[in-house]
Write a structure and sequence with these properties.
Elements lengths: L2 H7 L50 H5 L3 E6 L8 H16 L4 E5 L7 H10 L6 E4 L4 H5 L7 H5 L4 H4 L2 H9 L12 E6 H5 L4 H6 L3 H12 L13 H7 L9 E3 L5 E3 L4 H15 L12 H9 L5 E5 L2 H14 L5 E3 L21 E4 L6 H10 L3 H9 L6 E4 L2 E4 L31 H13 L13 H20 L7 H23 L2
Parallel strand pairs: 1-2, 1-3
Antiparallel strand pairs: 3-9, 4-7, 4-8, 5-6, 10-11
Helix pairs in contact: 13-19, 15-18, 19-20
Length: 513
């Protein structure tokens, strides 16, 4: 593998002239979604918002040498886990070696929904210095609890040079969350040996039209319960087909030149008709509405389905490792290109805001120090710790060469996944950090990524928009499984408009240029 190539692949050079909206949107959950959610546009209340910290102030604790304990929340992390406890001990030692007088203390969260438990904690007045959000952050930004990170990033040592174009756009729109990680956007994959057994494989790879994909699906259906595995929604297959049906952004222009919500456009109707036909043929899993991610993945590894989608890079790497472990080297994955039609591309990247990431409490007495910790995570030593895990458990090192151990497959970075400042040349080529499939997914994303035009939903429209989105989800499911047809479309759009869609559409046309 050309290790140096990976870092360049992860820096997506996207066209910034595309419509980016005039605000920020939110996409909750592990895989996110292309639709926007509730929230409101706010101005930061940081005490440095007037640019007073153009140069970082040295904290009193830095001058005295006192080590300050910074509290941090992280999803799914507990110090009862020895692996994590050892890792954080090593991370705190590395902070000290870097001259950063900080020690991280992980705030233990109750079992259950991380977002709900985090909201309860913050609403109670218990606000850690560094907070990881995966949804639910906008209400706290509106309350002035989250620090505007703009001046910190401008004066950072590492973060400012590691940001990709889409991340810069997100921070410009919503400067409260930092997530220095490759785009979390799904790419469809298939076992290489399965694909090579199909007569239509070459045609799909060379000319991935909708028609050629249909021929491939017909071949793949033989002997399987379904071709495309999904987990309760259509996002995985939308990644392959949205742009081919003209759904190139969240808001698309109609024949009169006005913006309409893509999911209630004529393009969406044509795509839903296509999906309904795939469902009736058994190409889309008949149980997709009730399936979760675990069912989706297990069906893929057991060859009950042939194609699933996962976030480019790390998730595809995990899928590849599991597939090879279950079915041998020939089962290594091939990344499938997005379908060609009215356009070609994977799901457009929402640049309205980060859907997840790290915030700093505006109430913290150690904001500069908290950002130093995040900046350190992007440094060489920080990258090595974050991406590699713990020596002896996740990797070994000999003569400066790092060899990954099997347990590393279950290690996920606690902060970021960028390869900026990560020494890929130090990796043992027998255990590369990413598989060929993962590298290919980054290549494909770099080639086919485009920017979206989603925006933050203003507070006055949140309730109505949620009602409209609920109505959309219900109708979409009914249409795909055959309970609704094209004859019901106009009535659905009228109802969608009446419960809030029309008001939001009017707002969209006022902010999109």
């Amino acid at each position: 593998m050309k290790k140096r190539l990976i870092a360049s692949l992860l820096s997506l050079t996207l066209v910034t002239g595309l419509l980016a909206g005039c605000g920020s949107g939110e996409k909750p959950g592990d895989t996110g979604s292309s639709e926007t959610n509730g929230g409101q546009e706010v101005s930061g209340t940081t005490e440095n918002s007037d640019g007073e910290n153009a140069e970082k102030e040295e904290s009193a604790e830095s001058e005295s040498g006192e080590v300050v304990t910074l509290r941090v929340t992280l999803k799914g992390i507990s110090m009862e886990d020895e692996r994590q406890r050892v890792w954080f001990d090593e991370y705190n030692k590395a902070l000290a070696e870097a001259g950063i007088p900080a020690k991280l203390e992980v705030v233990e969260m109750q079992s259950g929904s991380y977002q709900d438990n985090l909201s309860l904690m913050l609403n109670s007045g218990d606000i850690p210095d560094i907070i990881y959000f995966q949804g639910g952050d906008q209400v706290f930004a509106a309350q002035g609890i989250l620090e505007d990170l703009t001046p910190y990033i401008e004066n950072s040592t590492y973060v400012k040079n590691a940001l990709e174009d889409f991340q810069k756009e997100r921070l410009a729109n919503y400067p409260y969350l930092l997530f220095v990680t490759p785009a979390l956007s799904p790419t469809p994959v298939i076992r290489t040996d399965v694909l090579e057994g199909c007569a239509s494989a070459e045609a799909v790879l060379e000319d991935p039209t909708i028609e050629n994909y249909e021929k491939l699906f017909e071949e793949l259906k033989e002997g399987r319960k379904a071709v495309f595995g999904l987990d309760g929604n259509l996002k995985g297959i939308n990644a392959m087909f949205d742009q081919s049906f003209g759904l190139t952004t969240t808001w698309v222009k109609d024949d009169s030149g006005n913006y309409v919500y893509g999911r209630v456009s004529r393009q969406s109707l044509e795509e839903l008709k296509f999906y309904a036909s795939l469902y009736q043929k058994g190409i889309i899993d008949k149980d997709y509405l009730s399936a979760n991610w675990e069912v989706k993945e297990n069906d893929f590894y057991s060859n009950n389905t042939a194609i699933i989608s996962g976030n480019q890079g790390a998730v595809i790497d995990l899928y590849n490792s599991n597939q090879v472990a279950a079915n041998g080297e020939g089962a290594a994955l091939t990344v499938l290109p997005p379908a060609k039609g009215e356009a070609q591309g994977y799901l457009p990247l929402d640049v309205s805001k980060e859907s997840r990431g790290f915030a700093i409490s505006a109430l913290s007495e150690h904001k500069d120090l908290a950002f130093e910790v995040l900046d350190f995570a992007v440094s060489g030593p920080g990258r090595m710790l974050d991406l590699m895990g713990t020596e002896g458990k996740d990797y070994t090192v000999e003569n400066g060469v790092y060899t990954l151990l099997p347990d590393h497959d279950t290690w996920y970075a606690n902060f970021f996944e960028t390869f900026e400042n990560f020494d890929l040349d130090a990796m043992n080529p027998d255990t590369p950090y990413w598989s060929d499939a993962a590298v290919s997914s980054a290549e494909m994303m770099a080639e086919y990524a485009t920017m979206d035009n989603a925006f933050v939903m203003p507070e006055e429209h949140i309730v109505n928009w949620d009602a409209a989105e609920t109505k959309l989800a219900e109708f979409t499911a009914d249409f795909v499984i055959g309970n609704k047809t094209e004859a019901d479309w106009d009535a659905f759009v009228e109802e969608w408009n009446s419960v809030g869609g029309a008001a939001v559409t009017e707002y969209a046309n006022s902010v999109l240029q």
